[in-house]
Specification:
Shape of chain A: globular
Largest interface: A-B, 95 and 89 residues
Number of strands of chain B: 0
Chains: A mainly alpha, B mainly alpha, C alpha/beta
Largest sheet of chain B: none
Helix content of chain B: over 70%
Number of helices of chain A: 13
Structural class of chain A: mainly alpha
Helix content of chain A: over 70%
Number of helices of chain B: 14
Order of helices and strands of chain A: HHHHHHHHHHHHH
Mean pLDDT of chain B: 86
Low-confidence stretches of chain A: 296-300
Shape of chain B: globular
Strand content of chain A: under 5%
Largest sheet of chain A: none
Strand content of chain B: under 5%
Oligomer: heterotrimer
Structural class of chain B: mainly alpha
Chain lengths: ~300, ~280, ~425
Amino acid sequence: MRRGRTFWFWVFVGPFAAGLALFTYVPLLWSVGLSFFDAHNTVTPTRFVGLDNYTAMLRDGAFTGSLRTFLVFTAFIVPVTFALSLALALMVNRVRRARAFFRSVFFLPAACSYVVAALIWKMSLFNGVRFGLANTVLGWFGADPVAWLSTTDPPWYWLVIVTVRLWLQAGFYMILFLAGLQRIDPVLYEAAAVDGARPGWTVLRNITLPQLRGTSVAVALLLVINAFQAFDEFYNLLSNAQGYPPYARPPLVYLYYTALGQGQNLGLGSAGAVLLALIIAIVTVGQARWLRLGRSEADG
Amino acid sequence: MDDALVRAGRALRVVVLVVLALLFLIPFYLLVRNGLSSEQDITSPDWTFFPAEVRWGNVPELFDDPSVPFARSLLNSALIAVATTLGTLLLASLAGYGLARIPYRHADKVFYGILGTLLVPAAVTFVPSFVLVSSLGWISTLRGLIVPTLFSAFACFVFRQYFLGFPRELEDAAQVDGLGPWRTYWLVVVPNARPVFAAVGTIVFLGAWNSFLWPLVIGQDRNAWTVQVALSSFTTAQVVRLHELFVAAAASILPLLVVFLCFQRWIVAGVERSGID
Amino acid sequence: MTISRRTLLGAGAGLGAGMLSACGSNTGRGSGGSGGVRLAQWYHQYGEPGTEQAVERYAAAYGKAHVTVQWRPGNYDQQTAAALLTDSGPDVFEVNGPSLDQIQGGQVEDLTALLDGVRDDFNPAVLAPKTYRGKVYGIPQTIDMQMLYYRRSMLRDAGVRAPRTLDELVAAARTLTSSKVKGLFLGNDGGAGVLGGTPLYAAGLSLVTDDGKAGFDDPAAARTLGKLHRLYADKSLLLGAPADWSDPSALLQGLTAMQWSGLWALPQVQKELGDDFGVLPFPADGPAGRPAVPVGAYGAAVSARSRHKEAAKEYVKWLWVERTDDQEDFALGYGFHIPARISLARRAGKLKSGAAADAVRFATEHGHAQPLLWTPAAQAAYQDALSRIIKDGASPEGELRGVVRKVSAELERVRHTS
């Protein structure tokens, strides 16, 4: 019987596992291997350098700087996206008319590619000259055009990055929250009404949010992973033919320029990638532990 | 007094929603406005909400541009997105079912092995993946564009979570009828799990249609360009033609929006029941 | 690592060969069976209409091999670099290099023999960065250069003369800036990307000295780069235009009075502005200063992984050494470049008058190419520092100290690699 089960397990899981092994694990281990070699312009290096690439990466101010920037970015974007998508879900869930319309409007951007979104933001909405929409609006109030993506003081580029990210992602997480709201038993609300709880903050705090706990944990985890893996919108908004500016540079973008492109220092790039993957793993696992722990305390 | 408060709250909510909805629609509006304008209208310092002259001619101009095979790239994207979706659904649902339902000593280890790959950014393994695929001889082929992307740990994870909550009674009944695991899966489980297939399928389809970096390096031949690569060729040219860029961007998301609006109901239903949390 | 590499590549290659013979492959290379040798040739995406058709025409005219042209949008350097790691890359490709690491890594073939007897006819400024220890690794195709375009009428109306020093440029940009028009456009990043080493050359310095040291370990470097921050602080720079510096749109649309751009923009500027423009080199700065313009050339290279290296070299020789009429057509027929061959440049009628003649003169008298020893890592460190100097007002001395350290380490590294 056990042998039969093992057989069926691999019939179901085997093809997927084999593909994942070949197309994800092999490149992954290969990368880890490269990180111990001097690998300029080659994926089959011969000069073993031990941990040199790791020490070089940790001493590289540009890399550690980008890690710091992204810790701050994560600490900001995660709560903001979380709050916006939760607020959207709560409002859409309570609205009486045109609910499907509102849901579609907020969800629609999730279908757009980062390339297209970056294009609209960079070329039209937030371009730095007078025919950009944002600058046109400023012009109505008599203000001078602002070079949104090029100004470092104040760092207006964050406004561009944060808005494009919210536009692209809030709808998706809103759907997760909406699904969570649908699962809340209406009896709970009725009971609260009988107890004289006024709809509004009290109900939200005492019933809705605790009931959404599971969804909230999932959304928070996904948001954190997502923030650390940021690449597409940054790359498409800020890079040009000559490279990427030294600000708002995600670790992945920095590694991309180190390892790919003419830099082709695959050993150094791989070492940085391994460090980044480790950080993501530690943060995510730690966060999961912490959030789960909180739940079991609340439940018990 | 209370009633008035509640009513005011409700009105406020509608106002906030409408304002937010308008903000969310601005980018779509800009796509259409710029896509149907002449270059002069787009760059004019005097803002007009709609172009003085609506230029539908931009659309045929896009498809006639000899330097970018736009129609072909749309076709490629459609082929790749459909094949990727079907392949992913097949592989990931089987794996998710196996992990959720077939007791096996090391199932947990296999599961964490799959889940762990979610933490590794794809860019990390990018170069070795490229070399691997190229040593298979898959550069500029549909195989190379599709096969390596079929093994989505995310899809597998969602399916596993869904099947963990799937009612056991159905499978038990099938077993009583003498069906083995394979036929139980196809005849009983799949027909009753349509929402999650629709939800995962839509997400995978969107991802495949919108993916950029992989098609850029694998689809080297112009005939293998996807629509995202074609789009980027407008932005990397030395001379930027804004109207063509915007009309191309609009054309690249139109098919998606149609698919998306049709399946939206299913995604919501699928998410609700898949227990992504 | 060694294990997985050897076994996997072995397995992969075996599998790949099977796939190839079974299904064919669409890469445009391979042995081609009866039809003779097939070669894949790559170009980056040129912006000028007609270029692609032209290179296809040249390739089609070649009799000894079937040449397939691939036209690559997107980040071309990254694509070629990745493709050179594999067997499915190009046989012949143009490259903004080859880079020193590509040469030292044995990824590109030695093409010295192709230039037998005609080496002196190639512009030495652009041939030098393609030469390593006396051997040539890329045949210059055409020369590109960059310069400063300005609108004569705008300068006249503002009572400003064409700037001859960096200080005059800073002052002119400030005077020309109004609420509608900015004084100067150096790219959306404020100039860090496109200017590169040009201001250093304008200060009488260089990126790498002849004896292989960092060429800007000098107080004059900090002084000059600091003046670029003045441009930014004065708000004289156009930033965030939809089209970047390589496209003359900002100048043509009246968003800026002066713009740094390439020679390739000249026909379009001429067509739209007529006589209302002039061109300048980057102006000199300081007592040792001299005007500077960057020159460079895409070079035709042969991949060391090509299965038909000899055929590929023969084709490169045919197109980029022997076919002078095609070279002339390529340089002057679409957009605007200076032929890499001195003999062709001399007889090109289009380059004998007006702004084009000025440009040729700048390139000859003030041209500097990026040295081969200036590696991408050095460039990245320098560009980051320059961006911080220009936009954040960071101390040029402090930033440059860091760059000198980094660049010296890079120069040390490449000296020890053979």
